[in-house]
Amino acid sequence: MALRVFVVFWVHVDGTEWMDGWINRIDRSMRRHTTMRATTMRASTAAKTPTRPTTRRRGSTVGRRTRATTRALGGQRRDAGRDADADEERSVGRRAMRGVAGAALALAMLTGHAAHADSLPDEEESKVLCDAECARALETKDFVTTKSGLRYKEIKEGDGIEPPVGFQVVVDYVAMDEKGRVFDNSLAKGKPNDIRVVDCVGSGDFDSCTVIPGMDEGLLTMKSGGVRRLYIPGELAFPKGLASAPGRPKIAPFSPVIFDVNLIYIPGFD
After folding, report:
1. Could you read off the pLDDT of 24-48 as tens digits, one per residue?
2. 3-state secondary structure of 47
């Protein structure tokens, strides 16, 4: 039985028709084995049965016939019992093989489905502040360039006030490398950021920045409710760079980056 189970597990399950062919081969082998064992058992029983003397007794013809008939019927019953036991054994073995093979097929299907599911791309679109249509519209707009080398384009003009230095502002942003690959996104996190603007570029004290210098400078000239695309040069971005991470490209030191920023409101003013 162990050998039959091993064979079923070893066979690669590629379809029920092919699997039934293997089961039928094993079943025929089991039938031959059972038939040979039954024949051997009958021969062994016949060899052990003592032979009665052949001395004739007067008036015993009917008795001899009765005993012969009884022995024949007993042999037939034993043969029928052995055949029934063999059929039951084959039936149990066949059911077991089908169960094991079915389980192996189900496991293979589940594994294939899981592997296929893992390889599918994420259907949910990334949340952005400027979609493809917006990006095409920006191509027709002129850059605004500051003394520090920061450049920007207005996506949407705000209707509020500009943030005073030292105040908190609430913003959403999408950060991209120079090839447009997103490496940080507050929209995807589901929560905007509170940032204190300090004018670290104007003061020259970059260590006082709460965000990268180019973002701090870009926020100071925005109005609340506005959306702006900042083209930040490498010296105003990440001087030490950013290591790659799952879903995030590597940012080399002093690489230019692009930030889409939405100045949602200024607490205490809006």
Report:
1. 676 676 677 666 666 666 666 555 5
2. helix
Residue 141: name the closest of 231, 235, 265, 233 by CA.
231
How many angstroms separate the CA atoms of 154 and 138, rounded? 8
Backbone angles phi, psi at 249, to 5 degrees: -75, 160
| CA atoms within 13 Å, Cβ hemisphere of 5 | 7
Q: In the chain, what's the furthest Cα-to-Cα distance?
A: 140
Amino acid identity of residue 91, one-letter, is S
Task: Return the closest-CA partner of residue 228 out of 238, 240, 220.
Answer: 220
Q: What pLDDT score was predicted for residue 232?
A: 98
Radius of gyration of the chain, Cα coordinates, nearest whole angstrom: 43
110 SS3 class: helix
pLDDT digits (tens, 9 = 90+) for 169-202: 999 999 999 999 999 999 999 999 999 999 999 9
What's the CA gap between 68 and 65, in Å, rounded? 5
Enumerate domains of the chain plus CATH numbers.
2-47+65-116 (no CATH), 132-265 (3.10.50.40)
**CA 269 to CA 174: how far, in whole Å?**
24
- The DSSP call for residue 11 is S
**Contact yes or no for 93/30 (Cβ under 8 A):** yes
